[in-house]
Amino acid sequence: ELILEAVDLEYCYPDGTSALRKVNLEVRKGEKLAILGSNGAGKSTLFMHFNGIYTPRAGSIKFQGQPISYKKKALIELRKKVGIVFQDPDSQLFSASVFQDISFGPLNLGLSEEEVTKRVRQALIDTETTDLEGKPTHLLSYGQKKRVSIAGVLAMEPEIIIFDEPTAGMDPRHSLEFIQLLNKLSSEGKTIVLSTHDVDLAYSWSDRLAIMYRGEILAHGFPGELLTRP
Ligand code: ADP
Ligand code: ADP
Questions:
Q1: Is 148 within 8 Å of 89 (Cβ atoms)?
Q2: CA 212/CA 226 separation, integer angstroms
Q3: Cα–Cα distance between 114 and 124 in angstroms, integer?
Q4: Among all ligands shown, which has an atom nearest to the Cα of 146?
Q5: Considering every ligand atom, which ligand is closest to the CA of 132?
Q6: 128 C-alpha to center of ligand 1: Å?
Q7: Which helix (H) or strand (E) holds 15?
């Protein structure tokens, strides 16, 4: 079942950089989709379209078969369903404490304080950051910030979670822990999309894989069809 889709998507930055050229990509409900590509391939730019942060120059994004609307109210609804964890956790953390930071999104949804607290506690457990809840975010280590930024997205309870280069710069142990967290979310029914330049990770983790190069999708399909292991 299709949930999210890019259709002939094109995007150009104000300086003239053509970042996406006729990108077509399907995200299916419940799958683990990896977008493999080197730096500058257009992965982040594509992700910014998936929850309406960027407006395409041509083509469209469809959610459950319908082109998304860029009206304020519709975007708020879309962002409840499509969450993005950015590569740099500092771009996502801005409250005084970890607890406040994770609460920010759910509070904005207008949920009761009780519901917000319940969601924050669950997100703290899922990301193994319970011991950090009272800590100021600026005192966290990089790995801790990364986990708290994920918790903030989880607390929104999105259907689809998009991770931009989540394991970039991580050592193998942290990478493995992170992949275990993704697999847990996946087993709970979330749709997970991640970008990476790690061929092994893309191959071993994903249900489906798309390869991006210079703003284009070169190939997509099942990992076994696209890559052969040496
Ligand atoms: P990736 O996430 O795969 O590394 P990006 O989507 O960040 O790729 O970048 C795609 C292309 O767009 C690259 O050529 C990059 O240099 C360019 N780009 C990204 N952000 C900007 C920006 N703010 N202004 C101009 N060009 C940009
Ligand atoms: P923790 O406190 O959870 O053990 P660390 O701060 O030690 O986390 O870092 C977790 C992972 O993130 C490590 O693999 C480390 O290499 C990586 N890392 C640390 N700082 C940065 C950074 N500035 N950019 C990218 N990766 C980083």
A1: yes
A2: 12
A3: 15
A4: 2
A5: 2
A6: 32
A7: none
Supply angle C-alpha 223, 227, 230, rounded to 5: 125
**Atom 16 of ligand 2, residue of closest alpha carbon:** 170
Cα within 13 Å of Cα(15), Cβ side: 2
Which residue's C-alpha comes closest to atom 4 of ligand 2? 143
14 CB contacts (<8 Å, ≥6 apart)?
A: none
- At a CB cut-off of 8 Å and minimum separation 6, what does 199 contact? 36, 227
Distance 51 CA to ligand 1 centre (A): 17
Burial class (CB in 10 A: 0-12, 13-18, 19+), 85: buried
Phi, psi of 129 (to 5 degrees): -125, 15
The reply to whether ligand 1 has any atom less than 6 angstroms from the CB of 42 is yes
ipTM over cut 0.90: no
Residue 89: phi and psi, rounded to 5, are -60, -25
> pTM, whole model, 2 decimals?
0.92
pLDDT tens per residue across span 127-170? 999 999 999 999 999 889 999 999 999 999 999 999 999 998 88
pLDDT, tens digit (0-9, with 9 covering 90-100), for 148-158 = 999 999 999 99
The pLDDT tens digits for 3-61 are: 999 999 999 999 999 999 999 999 999 999 999 999 999 999 999 999 999 999 999 99
Nearest atom (ligand 1) to Cα of 17: 26
